[in-house]
Write a structure and sequence with these properties.
Layout lengths: L12 E2 L2 E8 L6 E7 L5 E7 L8 E8 L4 E5 L9 E7 L2 E8 L7 E2 L4 E4 L4 E2 L3 E9 L3 E3 L5 E3 L8 E8 L18 E7 L1 H4 E2 L2 H8 L1
The protein binds 2-acetamido-2-deoxy-beta-D-glucopyranose (3 copies).
Amino acid sequence: MKLSLTALLASAASSSVIMATQYCDPATSVCYEQMVEANMGVAYRIAIPNVAAAPFDILLQIVAPKSVGWAGVGWGGQMTLNPLTLGWANGDATGVSSRWAPYHSMPGPYAGATYTVLKGSETNSTHWTLTTLCRGCSQWTAQGGGTTSLDPAATTPVNLAYALSRMMPAEPANNTSSIAYHTARGMLTLDMAAAKTDKFEEYVQSLS
Ligand SMILES: *[C@@H]1O[C@H](CO)[C@@H](O)[C@H](O)[C@H]1NC(C)=O
Ligand SMILES: *[C@@H]1O[C@H](CO)[C@@H](O)[C@H](O)[C@H]1NC(C)=O
Ligand SMILES: *[C@@H]1O[C@H](CO)[C@@H](O)[C@H](O)[C@H]1NC(C)=O
């Protein structure tokens, strides 16, 4: 049985995306497709290279108020059986954690994706920002063997899942730390064409 994240726990707060727009970081001139979830105002920013098919690397920036303990993306649009990227504040820095949930229980570490934490990953008095490059988030193999890919040529918006919690991970310096259950979750609708950029490699270099 495959439950979508939206179907999971009707008691948890659900919220929809309020806007998808282009966002260009004034400090770095890196441009992303930005989706802001309506519950806590967490911004998810994504850029992908101008390619015709997966696998491809993904540039992800998450900007969250400090009241958000962790926030994450499910690249297949659900909690289970797809790569999950979690971010959180870790002192003045931010941490990234690669996860996978075989069931609707706390996601464990996932070795199928690797991350580089990039410039602009920091925590200030009001927000934390994670800027990371993911290799392994655009294509994955489910238990049972089937390969699933994000389609960079999709002409209709692609559903990604997000989830967040108001609780900090138990050990913020530990990327396999236990985490609290999400307090909100929903869908991000990613416009692949808008997230695509010819400057992808340039962006990654400038952030490295
Ligand atoms: C934790 O960090 C190490 C070192 O960077 C990395 O090799 C590992 O894949 C990470 N694990 C998770 C679950 O993100
Ligand atoms: C902290 O960082 C966020 C994200 O860059 C920014 O919007 C916010 O203004 C910063 N807060 C302060 C107090 O500088
Ligand atoms: C990180 O957290 C996991 C899960 O709680 C734990 O098993 C592991 O020992 C921790 N690692 C360190 C270095 O504390």
